[in-house]
Amino acid sequence: MSICPSTEFSLEAFPLGLKGWHHIQFASPLRIPVTLPIAVAKSASGGPTIVVTGLVHGDEFEGPSAISRLFFDLQLHAGTFIGLPLTNPWAHAGQSRNTPKHFDGLNLARQFPGLAEGSRTQQLAHLLYQWVTGLLGPNDLLIDLHSAGSRYEYLSMVGYHPTDDDTESASRELAAAFGFRNLWQIPDSPSSRRTLNGSIARAGIPTIGTEVRGFGGLRSLDVDLLVNGIRRVLAVKGMVADEPPTTEDVPIQTTHQIVFSTSGLFNADVDLADTVQAGQPLGRVLTIQGETVETLIAPVDGQVWAIRRFASVHPGDIAFLIAQPI
Questions:
Q1: Is the same domain home to 138 and 170?
Q2: Its pTM surpasses 0.85
């Protein structure tokens, strides 16, 4: 497998009809270069480029498994497919969501577009952003695969960012084509703008992001959902021989995030996929002695799309995502 510096990575350097695993190296300004496996399939004809990323968080295992499973028997009829299954190698090696604390403890998914003069995670974000934006354009697509990780459980959802432009329209159509019933308009916030998918969408490149159940596992069902969704998008883009899928008319929903304001032990009173009403108690935070120190209340009518499963909580941790049609 060849190694290519990210600054020299060019589709023109790969021959037509190529399919194989290679390595891409992200170097300066990193003190120690990072070399990551990358899957490249280039058809014998022109067409769009799709980049699929996984393991931005080190405890989300479904994305890399979906990339490798899809790539094994992928036969492209047009365009180029690029899979980057391991995006944050430090978090993956540390078996943690974020980069380990002895580096900088940062969440890569909140550092984009990065900072060349920053810490290790910020520098990697800078290099990844430069690589993706140099590779993709308005006719291409980034698919950023996520899951609930080890401390949460999510319903499967596919999302896009509200950028109020042609990029949003293209992203929304491709998100709908992915085939998940939960179609998510990701709320605009300073935090969501600093994700990989949020920053790339605002660079004028169609982008979708996914979430699947997670909970620290690797269920074949969740991997199958992601593989099928990527294949559906490839078919819509005319990159594989599959018939373009019929897209169901599902409601677009947004989510309301509920966070803890205290520390303690979390006891949920509702479960994933439950329907809730505004003002309904959703759960409690207890002290070790069993005293209730916080009661979480639903801010809106909606459905529980995400729930905290790891019972020990601190202020700022997410408790629930409540979805509501737009």
A1: yes
A2: yes
Of 139, 95, 98, 96, the C-alpha closest to 121 is 98
Report which DSSP code applies to 247: P
Same domain, 61 and 33: yes
82 and 201 assigned to the same domain? yes
What residues are paired with 19 via a beta bridge?
A: 41
Structure tokens at 307: 């729930």
Are 61 and 100 in a shared domain? yes
pLDDT at 1: 60
> 284 with 174, same domain?
no
Query: Residue 10: which domain range?
Result: 3-236
- Reduced to 3 states (helix: H, G, I; strand: E, B; else coil), residue 30 is coil
At 67, which helix (H) or strand (E)? Answer: helix 62-72
The sign of the dihedral angle between the CA atoms of 68, 69, 70, 74 is: positive
Which residues, 6 or more positions from 164, have their beta carbon under 8 angstroms from its beta carbon? none
CA distance 33 to 123: 11
Could you report the per-residue pLDDT of 37-63, keeping only the tens digit for each?
999 999 999 999 999 999 999 999 999
* Same domain, yes or no: 144 and 265: no
**22 lies in some domain:** yes
Please check whether residues 89 and 210 belong to one and the same domain: yes
219, exposed or middle or buried, with CB in 10 Å at 0-12, 13-18, 19+?
middle
109 exposed, middle or buried (CB, 10 Å; 0-12, 13-18, 19+)? buried
- Has residue 244 been placed in a domain? no
Burial class (CB in 10 A: 0-12, 13-18, 19+), 188: middle
Give dist(CA 286, CA 152) in Å, integer. Answer: 19
**Do 276 and 149 sit in the same domain of this protein?**
no
pLDDT tens digits, 261-270: 999 999 999 9
